[in-house]
Design brief:
The structure is a single chain. By secondary structure, the protein is mainly β. The chain contains 4 helices and 47 strands. Strand 35 and strand 36 form a beta hairpin. The radius of gyration is 28 Å and the shape is globular.
């Protein structure tokens, strides 16, 4: 028996695993080095070019003084950033002196916008600053800032368009200039985000951990596994405003997802009068997508509607080589597979808001999405004897069609103290996901041997229908005391259920009719109720900021299998503390220590004992006895912003009890059987590093991580404990060839690593893109090359003493894509939806 490490629950969805031969792996390693080198060469060349192009004739300036409103007290060390009004590019950054005064020099004549930020005060933006040759100095005089209730401040990198915002317990990545994702989907966006990895099956991991909560606009998606993967593949990249990554959220947040939270923030803007936009794209994989939005604000009423359509057609392939150590015949099994994947999806979002007063608003929102995902594949098997002579030949086919309809409705009331501070909110949310799948398995025996028998199993038809309704009621209250203390409290109640009916039928060769197999039919009914209360206290003392929180939850679950008369009840209470201590050396340099406790609860798919056959040699069933896993996490974060860019380094430690792992066994007949089980514990220690560098027209965003993974699986048969060191690196280089044209290159590499019972091969993904702005900032056209060297695949090596197996999958990501976008209107946001927002999260910026 062997296990696959945490990121591998995706194997349940694999139709055919395939192996990576030695020569191909050597070729992948050889190709990876020059491909990464190419990106670095582009960056170095561009940096030299940009430096030579720098203009040394600038002589204008901006000066002023910042003070606190009311008292007139000078605000020292405030951060001042200056941008060109024409294209919002950053041109200068400075800090206020002890008396609050500042002076920015070396500016060309033109229009500028200036942004002033200081701890404990609301930001101030002036977009009407003019420098001319006749008046080279713009004196803004005395500028007043308003104090607001303390929160752990975000440290915003002043890179162009604020692409990256580093905060105490989440980082925010804007998609505005994410050119290598243009014309793609949310999956392409996530592949550009540090610490996040998305495999060819669209399964998401954070720091190598698959137990991550994916939120849409601050609300956790009820989908998981394959359903979540396909849902992410239907969201056009053009509708994503930013991605927020919280690896150590506070007690205010739902504690589900031991790896943390990934929040995908969708565009939800409406402008004064009528406004909107559209995006359309196509590609060589026969991809086609189109999306549009329209909004209107009139007096207190704001309405917003968006819709999208997406389709694609990708060629998929794979290889598999197996050596049988315990079974004499066949001694070896080799195979290759070919097929197609065809996703087709559509979605619609409606938002409405009515302002009762300047500080009070009612909102009603709806989100509908659905579609069809089809996949066909055929695997060709060869059984070999000890001399590698062919003794048996057969094929295995798989045809799957999956359909879905997801609905989400929310009504909410919100009261704010100002534009960025919500002091009371309550919302009721209902969601319902309906899914159905049909899976046909078939094969053809070309040459029989003792392992295949005289004939293969008859053609099989598997069908399932599931319904996943959920209700959520959430209330949050914030009470500030002066400008130094803030208390946040709240309640959340959740009720959700899953009903699934599955049938299996075999084709009768004589009658030509499918006959149901009662022993394989099953029904499950899963219900879950969770009640939670929390309190979070924040305190600022000089340059120190502290936060302590506690969340108390009680959960009750009922898992019923009516067809077999089994019932599993579970009731448990949990406490989830959190703490943050930060120190601001300056407004641009901060160190922070944080702690939190989180949980990952088994979902019905992991619990269901219903057998799901991928093909004749691969099947999966859940484990009704699976327990929740708990993770205690501690992080230290140091972040620094300079005129050239910024840096963030995060050492961390995560200890997990009852860690859930995807376990795979190969029985005596050679069938791979997979399930989930709890290992005693795991320990992960590692460090993340993210660096942004700007030099004139060049922006480099790069970094990586290294961590040591250690698991204690002595409680499982065979003691699958393992130790491994894993590292990855990524780089994103953007060159502004002109004010309206930019070139971007992205590469991500994860080194091979050991897991329980085997090892993973290296993972490589690259994208190149060229974008040209049109109609000013109102539109653009983008040409994108995805996976140009055709390196993206997933491989796994298994060795359990009975077999040695090498598998590799290719996902057909390589392609050339073109997209165009156009918007109209001025940006004016609706009031943000209530979110499970970590303390200190950055406020939404322009999409």
């Amino acid at each position: 028996m062997h296990a696959v490490s945490e990121p591998q629950p995706t194997y349940v969805d694999n139709r055919m695993t395939c192996a990576l031969g030695g020569n191909r792996r050597a070729q992948r390693r050889w190709l990876t080095a020059p491909a990464l080198g190419l990106i670095l060469l582009i960056g170095l060349t561009s940096a030299t070019w940009a430096q030579s192009a720098a203009d040394s004739t600038k002589g204008g300036g901006i000066r002023g003084r910042i003070v606190a409103i009311g008292s007139g007290e000078a605000i020292a060390n405030g951060a001042i950033s200056v941008r060109r009004a024409a294209d919002s590019s950053s041109v200068a950054n400075t800090s206020a002196g002890p008396d609050g005064s500042f002076h920015v020099t070396g500016l060309e004549p033109g229009q500028y916008a200036i942004r002033i930020r200081a701890l404990g005060y609301s930001p101030l933006v002036r977009s009407d600053v003019t420098i001319s040759r006749e008046h080279p100095l713009a004196d803004l005089g005395t500028l007043t800032l308003s104090a607001f209730a303390v929160k752990l401040e975000s440290q915003v990198i002043t890179g162009e368009r604020q692409d990256v915002a580093l905060s105490p317990d989440r980082n925010s990545y804007s998609t505005k200039n994410m050119t290598t994702a243009s014309g793609g989907t949310a999956v392409d966006v996530l592949r550009n985000v540090p610490s996040v990895e998305v495999d060819g099956n669209n399964n998401v991991t954070l720091r190598g951990n698959a137990n991550v909560v994916v939120q849409i606009n601050g609300r956790a998606s009820p989908l998981s596994g394959e359903q979540l993967a396909q849902f992410l593949a239907q969201i056009p990249a053009s509708t994503v405003t930013r991605v927020e990554v919280a690896t150590n959220p506070s007690a205010k947040n739902d504690p589900e997802g031991t790896a943390g939270i990934i929040n995908i923030v969708l565009n939800q803007q409406a402008d004064v009068g009528l406004s909107g936009g559209f995006n359309a794209g196509t590609g060589t994989t026969r991809q086609a997508n189109i999306s549009g939005n329209i909004g209107r604000q009139s007096g207190p009423l704001t309405l917003y509607l968006s819709a999208s359509l997406y389709r694609d057609h990708r060629e998929i392939s794979g290889e598999s080589n197996r050596t049988n150590l315990a079974i004499p015949i066949p001694a070896f099994v080799e195979s290759h597979s070919e097929g197609q994947a065809q996703p087709r999806f559509k979605s619609m979002t409606f938002r409405s808001q009515y302002k009762l007063t300047e500080n009070d608003a009612l909102s009603a929102d709806a989100m509908l999405s659905g579609g069809r995902f089809a996949r066909q594949s055929t695997a060709f098997y060869s059984d070999l004897d000890a001399e590698r002579e062919v003794i048996g030949l057969f094929t295995q086919g798989n045809e799957q069609t999956w359909r879905s309809l997801s609905q989400n409705y929310t009504v909410a009331y919100r009261r704010t103290a100002d534009a960025s501070t919500t002091i009371f909110s309550t919302e009721l949310r209902y969601s319902n996901d309906n899914n159905s799948s049909n899976n046909n398995l078939f094969g053809e025996l070309l040459q029989a041997d003792t392992s295949t028998g005289s004939e293969l199993a008859p053609r099989e038809h598997d069908a399932s229908v599931d319904h996943v309704p959920a209700w959520n009621l959430q209330t949050d209250y914030t009470h500030p005391w002066g400008t130094g203390t803030k208390l946040e409290t709240g309640f959340k109640g959740t009720m959700r259920s899953t009903a699934d009916n599955s049938t299996v039928a075999f084709l009768d060769s004589l009658s030509g009719v499918y006959t149901p197999d009662p022993s394989r039919a099953n029904t499950l009914d899963y219900r879950e109720r969770i009640g939670a209360v929390y309190a979070v206290l924040s305190q600022q003392i000089g340059k120190f900021q502290t936060q302590g929180g506690l969340r108390l939850e009680e959960a009750a679950t009922r898992f019923r299998l009516p067809t077999v008369g089994q019932l599993f009840d579970n009731r448990y209470a949990s406490a989830f503390p959190s703490a943050i201590l930060s120190y601001n050396f300056t407004d641009m340099r901060q160190v922070k220590l944080s702690y939190s406790r989180r949980i990952s609860r088994p979902n019905p798919w992991q619990l269901s004992p219903i057998v799901n056959r991928q093909d004749a040699r691969h099947q999966f069933h859940g484990n009704p006895s699976l327990r929740p896993e708990y993770t205690d996490a501690m992080e230290i974060s140091f972040q620094d912003t300079r005129s050239w860019g910024s840096m963030q380094i995060n050492p961390y430690l995560r200890k997990t009890a009852h860690a859930v792992r995807y376990i795979q066994t190969i029985d005596s007949t050679g069938i791979s059987v997979a399930t989930f089980d709890n290992v005693a514990s795991t320990l992960v220690t590692g460090t993340d590093l993210n660096v942004t560098y700007r030099r004139a027209a060049l922006t480099l965003f790069g970094g990586g991580s290294v961590y040591r993974y250690s698991s204690d699986a002595s409680n499982l048969a065979g003691n699958l404990s393992t130790h491994s060191v894993v590292w990855n690196a990524r780089v994103n280089a953007t060159v502004k060839l002109s004010p309206v044209t930019d070139l971007q290159a992205f590469a991500n590499y994860r080194a091979p690593s050991k897991t329980e019972g085997g090892s993973q091969t290296a993972f490589v993904y690259m994208n190149y893109a060229l974008r040209r702005k049109l109609w000013g900032d109102k539109g653009s056209v983008t040409l994108r090359v995805a996976d140009p060297f055709n390196l993206m695949s997933y491989g796994f090596r298994t060795a359990d003493g009975r077999v040695i197996e090498l598998n590799e999958q290719h996902f057909g990501q390589r392609g050339l894509f073109v997209s165009m976008s156009r918007t109209f209107g001025q940006a004016l946001k609706l009031r943000p939806q209530q979110q499970d927002e970590p303390q200190g999260a950055p406020q939404p910026g322009p999409g």
